[in-house]
Amino acid sequence: MIVMEFRVARTRDELEAAFALVHREYEKRGYSRRGEGGMRMILHNFLPDTTTFVGVDCERSLVATATVVPDSPLMLPMDESFGAEMQKLRRLGRPCEVVMLASDLLASGRESIPMVFPFFKVMLDFAMVVLRADFLCVAINPRHGAAFRHLLFENLGGNRPYRGANDAPSVARYLNLRTLFQRLEEPGREPVRAVFGPPVADPAEFAGRYTLRADLDFFLERKGDAFETASAQDLHYLSRCHCRDISAPEDAMQTGAAK
Questions:
Q1: pTM score, two decimals?
Q2: Which of 57, 82, 134, 151 is most buried by its number of CB atoms within 10 A?
Q3: CB burial class (10 A; 0-12, 13-18, 19+) of residue 220?
Q4: CB 73 within 8 A of CB 46
Q5: Domains and CATH numbers, the chain
């Protein structure tokens, strides 16, 4: 039996390894449009509260990753394909999105699905206690629909191309965090209750999270096409978040480190 630890990324090395894992796995599945310098990043990675999570095995190897993006003036990555549905959801509460979910467990011949389920417990706890979100959203390949229904994710939108995965087919799903614990008490929910049930993590468990803000210049220089579709308003908002112009990496040394 393989022992896994699921937690926030704590160092730059872990964040680099996570982005490299996403790049490799997306490339295998045709989700990447072109070379990305060995690391996969998106515009939303540069939000100060965007947080990357990792799955580490007993040998301290990073074998799984996912990133939780908070809602902001940048909207969420899903908005590009499911904008109308996301706007309806916003009228009911605050969403966040799981993106850049990748694992090499399948590639190594290990059974990944049951092992990765607890990963979502860590992320939903973070969404609840840190982001104060009401909904945890995700755009997935339709073939994963049954697994997410098992985890109580509800349908949000039908089959559409998802630009962040090279226009691969995707369906939108969301988990209602406000009603989750009530639903876990329904008959027949014992398996998912064992994964998602209380207690909720203490916020202190996320205190050591490492974000791009900790070494902004390094990641700006390696951002690849993360800013390719960013509007001037998007870049202005991110610059305000970091108290500096982040649109041009070559300016980083002149403007100083992120505050």
A1: 0.90
A2: 82
A3: buried
A4: no
A5: 4-253 (3.40.630.30)
